[in-house]
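[recover] target loaded
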């Protein structure tokens, strides 16, 4: 006769994270708007993801425009003492990811944005449009 291991106790649910908005998020949104980013969107992932709190998703109209938006976001936040944890794709200008740990800025070329559809992938997240 084999013995079964004792049943695990149910885990307590984790407390909800505080409803704080990172300081740099508003600056990043403003920086995107200053460079005429298209179809700006902010996804609130605090209730969905443990890895990141917010996604800022915007599009540029060309590779050069995508790079210009991303570089302006980096420069604007750096002027306030915030450096990105990681930057990916800046040299190609098709999809630039700027990671500030609490929030991530995605700057897409329109064809890649429609292909990857991040807003659909994170469809459960509350969304709001950036100021136009």
């Amino acid at each position: 006769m084999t013995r079964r291991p004792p049943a695990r106790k149910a885990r307590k649910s984790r407390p909800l994270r505080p409803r704080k908005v990172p300081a740099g998020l508003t600056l990043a949104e403003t920086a995107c708007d200053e460079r005429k980013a298209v179809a700006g969107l902010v996804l609130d992932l605090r209730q969905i993801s443990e890895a990141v709190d917010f996604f800022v998703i915007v599009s540029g109209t060309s590779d050069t425009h995508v790079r210009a938006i991303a570089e302006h976001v980096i420069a604007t936040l750096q002027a306030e003492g915030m450096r990105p944890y990681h930057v990916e794709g800046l040299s190609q200008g098709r999809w630039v990811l700027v990671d500030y740990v609490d929030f991530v800025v995605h700057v897409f070329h329109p064809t890649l944005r429609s292909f990857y559809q991040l807003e659909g992938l994170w469809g459960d997240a509350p969304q709001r449009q950036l100021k136009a």
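[recover] notes: Strands lie at 38-44, 54-59, 86-88, 95-99, 103-108, 127-129.
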